[in-house]
Structures are given as C-alpha cells and as structure tokens.
Write a structure and sequence with these properties.
Chain A: This is Oxidoreductase. The complex is a heterodimer. Helices cover 30% and strands 16% of the residues of chain A. Chain A is α/β, with parallel strands linked by helices. Chain A has one domain: TIM Barrel (Alpha-Beta Barrel), CATH 3.20.20. Chain A has an eight-stranded mixed β-sheet with strand order 2-1-8-7-6-5-4-3. In chain A, α4 links the parallel β6 and β7. Chain B is of the alpha+beta class. Chain B folds into four domains: 105 residues, Sulfite Reductase Hemoprotein, domain 2; 149 residues, Sulfite Reductase Hemoprotein, domain 1, CATH 3.30.413; 93 residues, Sulfite Reductase Hemoprotein, domain 2; 128 residues, Sulfite Reductase Hemoprotein, domain 1 (2-Layer Sandwich), CATH 3.30.413. In chain B, a hairpin with a 2-residue loop joins β18 and β19. Chain B is globular and about 60 Å long. Classes of the chains: A alpha/beta, B alpha+beta. Chains A and B meet through α4, α5 and α7 of A and α1, α2, α5 and α6 of B.
Chain lengths: 202, 553
C-alpha cells in the first residue's frame, strides 16, 4: 500500500496556505486531466475503473463492491493495488473484513443532498480503522467538502466547475469550530479545556 | 441562561462569514437558486410566496431581555415592524431583503443568537417545555440537555444531509408541555432505578401528512449515554431512511415500515458500538458545567399567598381570568409563571410588533429576572414573577394589547401562516383563527367552555399541528375553493393522540359555524364543567358531533 502525506489541510488556514504555495502551477494544471482534489491540490487519478464484465487492467484497479466481493481471491493474486467503489445503498459492513487488501475506497454521492456516504465514511475510519485513501465521488460540491473531510474523506473527485474554480482559488468554506468528535478525521477538533465530550480523540 | 464562551462566539461568527460569502455568490449569480437553496435553508432562509423569510433559532425557547430587544430592533429595521413566533419556539421575519440578511445575522450574533438549523434536512432547533426551570411539577430542568444536544448537533458533519428534517423535544415534567410524542425523537427526563437522572426515549412520532405517535424504544437511558444513543438513532435513520419520496422520508415512516421492534433492535445494536468508542460519553462534570448556566434564579422568599394578587382578582373580572388562565404555579412559593398571550381577540396568532417585543423585554427586566420563554403554542412566557407584581405587570401588558387572559382557552389558537405567506399552503389559516377568536371571544363564554385547543393548518404538512388539536382544522383545496376539514380528539400531551376526521369539510364561510356546533354539542353533552372537551370527545366518540354537524344518518 502506498503511503501518502498526512492531510494537507489539518487546519483550514493550512489548507489555504497549501494552495497558495502552489498557485502558479495551479492555473496551468487545474483542468480535467487532474480530476482529483487531494493533498491540497488537483492531482491525476492513477486508478482505472473496471465495471461488471470489464477486464481488469494492469496497475491500480477500482471495482464495484459486488464484483470485489465475488472475485476477491483472484484479485489478491494480481499484486497491484485494489480499490472498491461503494454506493450509498450498499452496506459498508460487507467490505469491513477485507479492508487490509484495499488501498482506496470510493464512496459516491449520487446527489449532494444524499448524506448516506457520510455515515459510511465515518464507520470506515472510526469503527473499522481504515487508513487508506477515502474518496468522495459524484455530486461533490464545495460547500459539502469540509463536512466530508471531517467524516474521513481525504480525496475528492470534483467535476463541478464553480467548485473547481473555488478550490483553485484557495477557498475552503469550513466553520473551523467543531462541536462534536467524529473519530474519523485527523484534524484538530476543539481547544483543550472545553467540552471534554466534544474533543475526545477517536 | 446559557452564555456563549469564546468557542461559541467563534463558531457563530465564522458561520455568518461563511453565509455572507454564499449570499454574495447568489447575488452575483455565481450560485443558482437551486444551488443556493440548501445553503440558505441551513441558515434559516426560506423563499416564500412573496419574499424570503428568515427563521431565527430560539434554542429551547429561552430568551434574555437583551435578545428579545434585539429581535424588536431587527423587526423595525429590516422588516415591517413585527415578527411571528412559531410552533418550534422560533421567530420568523417575513419580509427581509436577501442582501440585508448577513447584517441581521451579525446583529443576532452580537446577542448570542443565530438562524442555524431552523430549516433544511438536519437536526432542527431542540424544543422543550416553555415552563422549564420554573414549573412546580418538574423532575429536572430539560434545558441543559437541550443545550448539549444543540451544541452536539451544530453543523454535524455526518447528519447535515439527512433524508428529511429531524426534530427533537425534551420534557422535564411528567405533564408533557413539549409534545414529545409527536417528535422524531422525544426525551422524557426521569429518575432511574438507581436514583440517577436519565431519559425515556421515544422515536418516530410526527405530524405532517402521516401523523404518528412515537414508539418508546427505551424506558430508561442514563444521562451519560444521551449523545451516544441519539447518534445511534441518527445513524440508523441516515443510512436507512427513505430518500426516494420526500413524503415518506421522515423517521416515523422508517419506524412504521421496519417495525418498532426491529428498529429498536437496530438502534440498540448501533448504540452498543457507539458506546464502545467512549467518544460520546457525557462526563458528569460537563453536565454540571452546562447545568450551572441554568441555575434557578435567586428569588426573594415570599409567603405563598399574595394579598395584592388576591385583591386584584377580587377587583377585576378580567384580571381574575388572567390570573386563572395565564398564571401557572411556580416552584417557589409566592411566585408564578406568567403567559403573555399573543392571541388577542381577533388578532393574528403569534405575531408581535417591535414595540411589544421591547415592552415584554422591559417587563422581564422589571419582574422576571430578565428572562422570557417562547412557547410552542406561540405565546411568550415570563417565568419568574412574584405574585405581588402580577397586578402591575398586567396593567403594563394591557397598555400594549398583551393582557388577554386566554391561555389554554378556545381563543388561544395555533395557526400556521397559511396562504397569506406560505408557498405550500392550500388555504388561509390566519383569517379563520381571527374569525373563531371573534366568535368565541366573550370572556364568560370562554370560561364556560374551559380548556380547548384549536389548531389550524393551511395544508397537509400540518405546521399548525391540527392533528393534535382537540379541534383540528385542515385547509384543503377543493376545485379551487378553500375548504376546511375538522378533526376531533387530538392531543399533544402525555396522553398523545391523533385527531380523527369527523366528516366532509366546510367552506371558509361555514367553518366557524361548524366549530361552534361542535362546541355547543360538547357543552350540551358534558357531564359537568369538570369534564374537558378532550375528555368528553374521548368518552362520547365522534357520533354525536357527526350528527350535530351533518344530521342523523
């Protein structure tokens, strides 16, 4: 499993800094070839999707949950990273026993208002101890992204134009005062000495 | 009262800044109305028939005089000189300009208020007993728990995009003035077998199109597990609540379709897992810290009987009615909890002018420890008034049209804004409330009828709580005509029940006569003045009322 940098924006101010440091390259590279917002910048997606019935190509391969569960032994023999796409209606519990074989989990948002994957993300991080990449895909809009991050997402497939423009401009519309622990993100929660129930680490 | 610390101030200020940016993006056209909608909703901004509406949170219905004065100021500066108190103990301004809303939110933040989570598919303002901390029959003050829930649920990252809105109510007294059994989650404070404090937990109540009384999922939950248990309920709901149909998306439908036993099993199983993490265990010192903010005020000892109060009762029938209906026993001898009726005869239920808000704020300073409550019945409450002071208070209230002695009586009507304001409504509500109020307004008649709750909704979304009205009126559209259906026997208290439809609806011209027929039938058939309307309907059933309204079958 590849290692990756810790959350680039552990604090919102840090997020803004991370982007501004890269501002010059950003204007050139923030295009559709770099679909992912990850590590505080737009990055390329190194994963290849393999839907039902499609051949699994060389290199990192991303499969639907049902296919992964059916073929997981054969896939394990491939010796290349495996990722799994879990749709909101699917039970994250089914993936839980196999997380040690998985380097990427993609949770989808068919509509931005469908918050089921928020729960799945927290369960993955907090209950099942998943440490790999956790990606949000689908209707990912900037105003939901800080909440997604607090639920444990650390990469975002961003299609929406205004969202891409705002990210490129260093916007991260968080309210950086968190009243509740999520046990799911590594960012600092609330200041010590106040609300012990809200700041207990996960 | 709860006071913000630096953390709370930082939170609200930061949230206002965020929303100001979103408003600017909407005004500049960067955000479409569709994209702006969920963002504005989470900040309490609705789009109504004629204008944006701003709904301001009054957490668990508790206000300081300073806060109420600010609401009066906002009404005068940014609205048309009045505001409307709602059935969720909140306040709505019906005419603010979108461009002014960030400035209004700044004003609110300056007095530790906001408009967060008063709309949208998130955990809404937690409501409670408007007599909390004052009522004589209370086991414990529910407000510290409501405050803890408010904090925990504020911009909750996992639970901000629920299938539908989510409402929690807490009562601290066995007499349920918070209607907990018609909430998504209802919490009743009680003593446990070990003498500790905890909750009976109800899930899946609600009104709207499909009214349901909640199921009790836990008879006793220790207070330290409050957040863990609520989180378990929320997660089961967030993952499994229906999202295919907005009208079947509330947790009551999930409970109904899954079955109460199975949903209880799922919640308990999830609770076991959440509890294991210890993440949400409420430490006793934190409960104590929050509870300290709600410490009972230091009231000067008084004899239980007040000569001045009794003399004023003997002196004036109007004051006697006020004393009987609007003054409720306080924990402390010689004190009362005073309801300030926002239901003047023929008036608009729940409306208060800027001046009235300021007057009540001043009176709270003079007579009630600077504290005010908003009731879900759309009245204001002064919780800590010495009986000796009630005559002077009454005189001041009377100067401003606020001394109507009708709390709990037939003219103390709940009505939604209806077709006068609301984009969802099928019929007007306010005018029917006004007509009923005028019809039954004579003091002797109201006294004779006794306790009777009329509740009016202008559409099946039931914001006027008609399902739990002793008499409920539901406005529907019948081929372009506003028609009102009558339900009987609903109740939102500890004996909660959903009212039953009595028969075909009546037009706006007929409905007041029809209600009068129902009331007269009750007066004729009751076993005596001690048998309330609700008791009589429960004893008699619908038949005599049906016959009176539609003739013998």
């Amino acid at each position: 499993m590849e290692t990756r940098a810790p959350y680039a924006h552990d604090h919102p101010a840090a997020a803004v800094r991370a982007v501004r440091d890269d501002e010059d390259s950003m204007t050139e590279t923030a295009d559709a070839n770099l679909p992912l917002w990850r590590n505080g910048r737009f990055e390329a997606d190194e994963w290849t999707r393999a839907g039902e019935g499609e051949a699994v190509s060389e290199g990192p391969a991303l499969l639907p949950l049902v296919r992964f569960l059916a073929e997981r032994d054969a896939l394990a023999a491939r010796n290349a990273p495996i990722g799994v796409v879990v749709e909101p209606g699917e039970a994250i519990e089914e993936l839980a026993p196999h997380l040690d074989r998985v380097s990427l989990v993609v949770l989808t948002f068919p509509k931005y208002a469908d918050g089921r994957s928020m729960s799945s993300a927290r369960l993955l991080r907090q209950r099942y101890g998943y440490k790999g990449e956790l990606r949000a895909a689908g209707d990912v809009l900037i105003d939901q992204m800080p909440l997604m991050r607090r639920c444990g997402f650390d990469s975002f497939e961003v299609v929406n134009g205004p969202t891409r423009a705002q990210l490129a401009a260093g916007k991260w519309p968080d309210v950086p005062f968190y009243y509740q622990p999520t046990g799911a993100s590594q960012q600092v929660e609330i200041p010590a000495g106040t609300r012990p129930w809200a700041r207990r680490p996960g | 009262m709860y006071r913000y610390d630096e953390f709370d101030h930082g939170f609200v200020t930061s949230r206002v800044a965020q929303f100001r940016d979103q408003v600017e993006r909407r005004l500049s056209g960067e955000l479409t109305e569709d994209q702006f909608k969920p963002l504005r909703l989470m900040n309490g901004v609705y789009l109504q028939l004629h204008a944006y509406m701003l709904r301001i949170a009054v957490p668990y219905g508790t206000l300081s005089s300073r806060q109420l004065r600010m609401l009066g100021h906002i009404g005068r500066t940014y609205d048309r000189g009045y505001g409307h108190f709602t059935t969720r103990q909140n306040l709505q301004f019906n005419w603010p300009a979108l461009k002014d809303i960030p400035a209004i939110l700044d004003d609110l933040a300056s007095v530790e208020m906001h408009a967060l989570q008063t709309s949208g598919n998130c955990i809404r303002n937690v409501t409670t007993d408007h007599f909390a901390g004052a009522a004589a029959d209370e086991i414990a003050d529910p407000r510290p728990y409501a405050e803890i829930l408010r904090q925990w649920s504020s911009i909750h990252p996992e639970f901000s995009y629920l299938p539908r809105k989510f409402k929690i109510a807490v009562t601290g007294a066995p007499k349920d003035r918070a209607a907990i059994q018609v909430h998504d989650i209802g919490l009743e404070l009680k003593r446990g077998p070990d003498g500790g404090i905890g909750f009976a937990v109800y899930v899946g109540g609600g009104q709207g199109r499909t009214p349901m009384i909640a199921h009790k999922v836990r008879d006793y939950l220790p207070e330290e597990d409050l957040l863990a248990y609520v989180e378990a309920i929320m997660r089961v709901y967030n993952l499994h609540g229906r999202r295919d149909n907005k009208y079947k998306a509330r947790i009551k439908i999930l409970v109904h379709e899954t079955g109460a036993e199975e949903i209880t099993r799922q919640i308990e199983a999830e609770f076991v897992e959440v509890k294991k993490t210890e993440l949400l265990r409420l430490p006793d010192e934190e409960i104590q810290r929050i509870t300290a903010y709600f410490a009972a005020p230091d009231l000067a000892p008084k004899p239980a009987r007040s000569g001045a109060f009794e003399a004023a009762k003997a002196d004036s029938a109007a004051f006697a009615a006020f004393a009987e209906n609007n003054v409720t026993p306080h924990k402390a001898p010689g004190y009362g909890v005073v309801t300030v009726s926002l239901k003047p005869i023929g008036g608009i239920p729940g409306d208060a002018t800027d001046v009235q808000m300021e007057v009540v704020a001043d009176l709270a300073d003079a007579y009630s420890q600077s504290e005010i409550r908003v009731s879900h019945e759309q009245n204001l409450v002064l919780p800590h008034v010495a009986l000796d002071d009630v005559p002077a208070l009454y005189a001041k209230l009377a100067e401003h049209g606020l001394a109507t002695g009708n709390a709990g009586l037939v003219t103390d009507i709940i009505a939604c804004p209806g077709l006068d304001y609301c984009a969802l409504a099928n019929a007007r509500s306010i005018n029917i409330a006004q007509d009923l109020s005028n019809r039954f307004g004579a003091p002797e008649r109201q006294k004779d009828i006794g306790e009777l709750k009329i509740k009016i909704s202008g559409c099946i979304n039931a914001c006027g709580h008609h399902h739990v009205g002793h008499i409920g009126l539901l406005g529907v559209d019948r081929r372009g005509e506003e028609v009102y259906q009558i339900t009987l026997g609903g109740s939102g208290d500890e004996t909660a029940s959903v009212g039953a439809l009595v028969g075909p609806g009546f037009t706006g011209d007929q409905v007041v006569d029809a209600v009068e027929t129902v009331v007269d039938t009750y007066l004729k058939l009751r076993q005596g003045p001690d048998e309330t309307f609700l008791s009589a309907v429960r004893r008699l059933g619908q038949q005599p009322f049906k016959e009176a309204l539609y003739g013998a079958a």
